[in-house]
Amino acid sequence: MFEDLYNALQNFRLNKTRTILSLLGVIIGVASVIIITTLGQSATQNIKGSFGSSGLDIVRLNAGFANRRVSSGSSITFNEDFRTELWDNIPHLKGIYYNNTLSGTVGYGDVSVTSSITAIEYQYLEMNKFELESGSYFTVSDSVQGLQKIIIGSEVASTLFPQGDAVGKTVILITSNIRFGFEIIGVLKEQSSGFESTASAMFIPRGFYDKKISPSSTANTTVIQLVDQSYATEVVDIIKSYAETKTGQTNAIQVMSMQSMLEQYDEVMGTVSLLLSGIAAISLLVGGIGIMNIMIVTVTERRKEIGIRKALGATPNAIRMQFLVESATISLFGGVFGIIFGLILSAVATYVMDWAYSVQWSACLIAFLFSAFVGVFFGLNPASRAAKLDPVEALASE
C-alpha cells in the first residue's frame, strides 16, 4: 500500500499538468459544496444575530384578517377575559402582557420626534431584557395610576437632548391634537428583541392610555412570554387551533413567534443548501469522469511497466490496487484542497458581506468522503483494465 502510494506520488510529479487537470474537477466540486453550505449557515446565524439573544421565548398575537373583516359571529377581544382564557387553556406560559400603540409627536423646546408610542404594562421592558442606559423602569404605581412618565430610546434621547442628561426632563406629547406633559424617567440602550428595537422606541404606562387616550380595556397586541423558547412552535399551533375553535374563523388572530419563524427559516435554508449542494456535487461527478479518462490514458501509456511487473510475478490484485491507489490519491488531494479553498473563499465572502463566519463541518466531512468515493468508483474501470492486461501483449505493444 505504501509502495503504491509512493509510486503514485512519483507519477504525479512526472505528470504535473495532467495531475493538476485531474484535481481541478474535484477541487471545484468540493469547494462549491463548502461555499454553499457555509454561506447558508452564516446567513442563518446573521439573521438570528440581528434579532438579538432575547425575544425567542415570546409569542405575539394581533387581530387577524378575518377578525377585521367579519362583523358578526364570535370574535376575539384582547381584554381581561381573554387573558384569563389564555392562562386556563394554553400551556407553558410565563407571562401575558397587553400593549396599545398610538402615533404622536414628542417635543422638547424646538426639537420634536414623530413616531409610534407603545403603552405597556408593568415589567414589559424587563421581560424583553431591555437594558437602561440611565434612569429607571416603570413601577407598579406608574402603571396602575397611569402616571405621565415616559421611557425613550437612545436615538430619541440624542435627538431631543444632544447635550445628554435626558432623565428628569419634561417633554410634550401631542396625539390627536391633545397635548400631554411627560417626565422622562429612563433612556434605553440600543437593543433588539425579536420584533422590537429600542433605538427609536418610546414607552408610556398602559394605565395612562386606558384613562386618558382610549378608556377601554381592549388591547391592540397581546405579548406572551413562554417558560422556554423551545415551546414556541407548539404554543403557536395550540393558540391558532384554540382561536379557530373559539371563533370558527381560520384567521381569527395572527400568531407570530420569532423562534418558530427561525425554525421554519432553518428548514427552508437546509433544503435550499441541500439542493444547491447536490447541484454542486455534479461537478464532482464530472471530476470523477476526468479522473477515469486520465487513468485510462495512464494505463495505456504504462502498458510496458504493467507487463514487466506481471512478468516478474505481480498479481492482478496488486496491479489493480496500484491504480486504485493512484485514482484515490488524486481524489483525496482534490478533496483536501477543495475544503481549504472553499473555507478561504467563503471566509472572504462573509467578510465582504459582514456576516458571522459559521462553518458547517458536517458538510466538509460529507464532501470529503464523497470525493474519496468518486476517486475509487471512477478508478475501478481503469484499474480493472490494467489488472486484465496480458503481460506478453503488454510487452509486445512497446
Can you put this structure into words, describing what you see?
It is a single chain. By secondary structure, this protein is α+β, with helices and mostly antiparallel strands. The chain folds into two domains: about 1-50 and about 265-395, no CATH class; about 100-225, no CATH class. Helix content is about 55%, strand content about 20%. Helix 10 (about 260-300) packs parallel to helix 13 (about 360-390) and helix 12 (about 315-350) packs antiparallel against helix 13 (about 360-390). It is elongated and about 105 Å long. The two termini are about 30 Å apart.
Provide keyphrases for this structure.
398 residues, alpha+beta, 6-stranded mixed barrel, two-stranded antiparallel sheet, 14 helices, 12 strands, elongated
